[in-house]
Structures are given as C-alpha cells and as structure tokens.
Specification:
The structure is a homodimer. Chain A is an alpha/beta fold. The first copy, chain A, contains ten helices and seven strands. Chain A is globular and about 60 Å long.
C-alpha cells in the first residue's frame, strides 16, 4: 500500500500513480491531500493509470490510513535521530515480500513534497527507507521516490518465497491493534504522572513507540500487554488509601 | 555518458538532467533535439541541476555523439529482434563500471519519447538494456528511465573494482574507430556487389554490425581488419580483366 502523507500537488499524485502502475502496485492511499480529490491534474499526469486513481482512498489521519497494516515503512531523504532500522529500497522490498505474500498489508509512507515526513509520522513506522543519492543533489520528487521503491519491489517479486504464515501459533498485530495498545499504555502513563513534563512528553512517547515497534508484536502479545497495563493500574488503585 | 536521441520536449531533457544529478552523473549529450537548445523549459524542470545542462553537448548525428565511447548500451521498452545481449539495469551498471573506472567513456542511449530507439540506433549498441515493467502498463517516461539506470549505476558505484587496463597488450576500440572500419568494410561490400539487393541491404548491414559489435574489437584488431578488407579488395582489382 502506497500512502502519500499530505501530498500538495495533484500532478504528483498522478505521477505517483503512474509509477505504481509501472510496477504492478495498485493500492494508493492519500492522507489529507491539500487539493480537492478526485483531482483533474492527477488524472492528466497518471497517463492512463486510472485504475490506481479510481481505487485511491482518502483518509483524515495517518493513523486511520495505516490501521490494517502489519508492517509500515517510512521513506526519508534526510538523516533522522529515531531508534529505528534504516534500510535501502532493495531491503525494503525484501522485508515487505513475506507479509504481502502471506496476505497482510504492508504500508510505505511518502512525505509532503517540501518537507517530507514529520517525526511523529516516522515514529509510527517499523523501519526507515532511504535511497542513496548524490550528496550534492538530493532533491528527488515524490513520483520518483515511488518509482524507485516500486522498481525494487517489482525486482524482488519473482525471487521471494511466500512466508510460512505460522508464527509460533500467533499472527502479527495490525497497526490498529498496536495503536490501541499505545493509547492504553500512554493514557496509563499520563494518569500516573510519568509524562507530566509537557516539553519532554512528545519525545518520550515517540521513543517508547519506537521501542514497541521494534518488538514486532503479535496479536497475542498485544493482548498480554493490555492485561499488563490494566493490572498495573488496578494494583496501584487498590493500594491507595 | 547519457545520450538522448532526438528528444522531443525540453521538459524531459531537464527532468533527465535532474535524475542524472541525483546519482552523480554529469555527462549529457543530445542528438538532434527537436526544440531549440539551450531550452528554458529544460532549465525549469532541472530543478537546480544546472551544471548538467550547462555541460550538455548537442550533436547532429548519433554516430558523432558516441564516437569516443568504448561501450554503448541501448535502452528499450519493447522486445527487438537483433542478435545482441539483453541485460537489466543492474547488469548494465556492472558492465559499465570497469571501463568507466579505467577512464573510458561508456554511453547509454535513450530513445525518443514516443517511439524509442530505432533499429539502426540499437544496431550501434553492444547490449540492450531493459527495465522489467508490469506488462499491463509499460509506459515509462524518459526521465524515469534515466532515473532507474542512474539509480543502479549509483548502487553499483562503491562495490565495483577498477578493471585492470591491460587487455592482452591492446586497448578496446572506440566507436569512432569501429565505425571507420564499418564504413570501409561496407564500402567494399557495396563495390563488390554483395549488398546489391536494395531491400535487404539495411538489414544485412545491421546484422553484420551486430556481429562485429559482439566481438568487442580492440584497436589492434581494427587495424588488422582494415588491412584484411584492403588486401581483399586489392586482390579483386588485380583479378579484373
């Protein structure tokens, strides 16, 4: 699933759709596009990739756009300071293939034309994907970034065996399940005062989400963790005088 | 050396220059561009890759544009019927790296936006490069094709050792030297009547050029072949009544 986060220009959405069609990608999602949707400029630039545009879905929030994904990759041009694996486009294809072949949804995020993805967008992802570029000229437009990722995806297509679905008797958690746990966990931390430093709060949350993200939690583990948070909270209340 | 054969739109030249700059490619040649050159639309689309445009050189013929190349690759989207190795973009980068690191010029041809390269263009090349694309949607624009080849070139960049220049005491022939031999050889064939069937002539020439091309001739071998053609012709002259 190609997810464009707050794309600014319809033209770029169309060109991205065309690049997707070149490599057999069909699922496009748009998070808060700046211009109206459907968009005539997008259609013009899609050069016939109408099926991709017709099937595109618009979301109000990034979180809703990635709810069903089990693996989420974030493309960035710049260095970032988050504790996350950084992989290249070929690695991304290798990572994405087993879950996709197992019937899961893998999302790949592309940021705003001017400013890319924000820290909080990246924090949601399991890994960061960068394309090595000439350091003296790193401006790559949105559709070109989609093209390169699509190219590697298509290259990997034939050579990757389907993953054995069985994972120790459980299945990977969806992002929806993961975020429901984040919400529960962070609410608990707010209530206990752990996050009372308003300035430090966003960064602390990001770091913890990254930590959970790296764990590649299963559905069963998420259920267990909900229980853990609930129990911890309840125990504290019982102790209250 | 990126060589655009009869590019139609200035915008596409600019976008190709930008894609080149992304991957550290700097030598651009244009064979008979349809629009005036320098071109303001090209500059606009180059998004700052001005150095590539400023250094671009315009040629009247493809043959003059590739005169100094020792290896020539032709990009095509469609299948073709010429006896030439067909490689993918990653292979192209692997093939190009040793001669480039040895100080030779390697050219890669990109065809016209609408119609691609013609048979006679492809006949000049040592190998054909194709990018595997979704068979239902194979329209890849010029700059995107340059981008994908540039990407693979940049990927290969660090991992390829420089070639040992010594090649059995000789150096590979440049295209200029090769075509001078073609001219000599084909003139001789015309004179002796071998090519008298006007309808079959172009195809016969193409096939023979492909044959010579596959031989990867050295300078010394070219000199030898000139001698062979000359001697054979002289023999025929001597035989004349």
């Amino acid at each position: 699933v190609v997810i464009l986060v707050e794309p600014q220009m319809g033209e770029n959405i169309g060109a991205a759709a065309r690049a997707m069609a070149n490599f057999g990608l069909s699922r496009l999602r748009l998070v808060k596009p700046r211009e109206e949707w459907p968009n005539p400029q997008a259609r013009k630039m899609a050069s016939g990739a109408d099926r991709v545009l017709d099937a595109a879905v618009v979301y109000d929030t990034l979180q809703s756009a990635i709810a069903d994904c089990t693996l989420l990759l974030a493309t960035t041009a710049r260095a970032h300071d988050q504790a996350k694996p950084v992989i290249d486009a070929a690695d991304a294809a290798q990572h994405a293939a087993p879950p996709v072949h197992g019937g899961e949804s893998v999302g790949i995020l592309f940021g705003r034309e001017r400013t890319g993805l924000e820290k909080d967008d990246i924090a949601l992802a399991d890994a960061v994907v960068t394309v090595p570029l000439n350091p003296d000229f790193t401006s790559l437009n949105l559709a070109q970034a989609v093209l390169l990722l699509g190219y590697e995806w298509y290259q990997a297509g034939d050579s990757t065996p389907p993953r054995v679905l069985e994972m120790h008797g459980s299945v990977p958690a969806t992002k929806d399940q993961l975020y429901a746990f984040f919400a529960h966990f962070e609410r608990a931390l707010d209530e206990c005062g752990f996050l009372r430093n308003e300035e430090a709060r966003p960064n602390m949350i990001r770091n913890m989400r990254n930590m959970w993200g790296r764990a590649e939690l299963t559905e069963q583990e998420i259920r267990t963790l909900h229980g853990v948070v609930k129990e911890l909270t309840t125990l504290r209340e019982k102790k209250r005088p």
